[in-house]
Amino acid sequence: MDQNVVLGNNAGAVDKKHIQGLHRSPQQNLCPIDSLPFEVLGLIFSCCFLAEDEDIHSPHPRSAPLVFCNVCHYWRDIASSIPALWSHFRISVGGRSACMLDNLKWTARWLANSRSLPLAVTLDACLLKMLPFPGRTISRLTLLQPFNLDPPENPYPGDVAHCVSELTSIHYRSYNHTRSLSRIEAEWLWWVLTEALNLRFLQWDAPLIYEPASKDGQWRALQRLCISSPVHTGTAMDILCDLTSLKSVQLELKGRFLPIEDLPIPCAALTSLTLSVYDGDVSFVEMLESLTFPALRTLDLTCRSLLISPLDRLTEPMPAVLSLVARSHAPLGSISLTLFSMREDQVVQLLELTSHSLEALSIEEPDHSYVSEPPLTLTDHLWERMTRREDSAETHLAPHLTFLSLLKCNIQSTDGVLADMVQSRLCPAIESLYISSLNGERHLADLERLGQLFAEGELEALRCEEERYCDTDNESV
Question: Which superkingdom does the taxonomy of this entry point to (predicted)?
Answer without folding.
Answer: Eukaryota
